[in-house]
Amino acid sequence: MTTSAGAARHRFELACDDRSASAGCRDIAALLRTRYGEREDMQGLELALSELLSNIVRHGRSARRLCVRLQCRDDQVRICLADDGPRFNMAATPARLPEDRLATHGRGLWLVHELVDGFRGHHHGTLNVHGLSCRLAPAVAAQSTLTR
Amino acid sequence: MHLDTSTLDGHLLVAPTSDRLDTANAATFLRDTLARLDGNHRVVIDLVGVDFIDSTGLGALVAVRRALGEEGQLRLVSANPRLRLLLDMTRLAGVLPMFATVREAVGS
Question: What range does the domain containing A109 cover?
């Protein structure tokens, strides 16, 4: 982890399993709350991160490495996830709510697209790299991204 | 995942003790809830102690609703505005009606 004035970088190495994804999401959200305080738009960011991590551990079952890099600069948060699972670009995957309201799957990536502005994916060598970014509104005027 | 279960006015009450319902425990929650149905078709899931639910957790709740069949009834209890927003956003509010208290959920 490195920190400089007004900016901070953090790196997390996670095992590719459900428990590690959940714990990693909780830890990263807690770190962001320490920096930015409890705020409504943090909920949307935590949910988006949870969806991405769970997608990686579910669809990248043969992945051995999952690395999350977090960069905070002023009100801008960037999160980059890299995994060595099967080639997969979540950001390019069509995402819409399932027509069957009783569908038990298929809402996660749609939520990510709804909750964060900058959601990108690409391949770097053998790695799938996904990034998301968001600008956290000033705490006093924070609006829930869940309401969009 | 540990579940507290009881019955009230013909409803099975299920309360997960974890503060999260997500990819780490949704499958266990679903399995353990289904194992406790024992013929009950009216179920109330008390989520008052749950702070965070992702789409995997939502999927588990929908799976319980499916298991109850068309004549069944599943109601959620939570005062968490984030969960209400998430249900509205994913258009699940009609499938998973939410109430502020167990009494309201059972009595409605």
Answer: 9-147
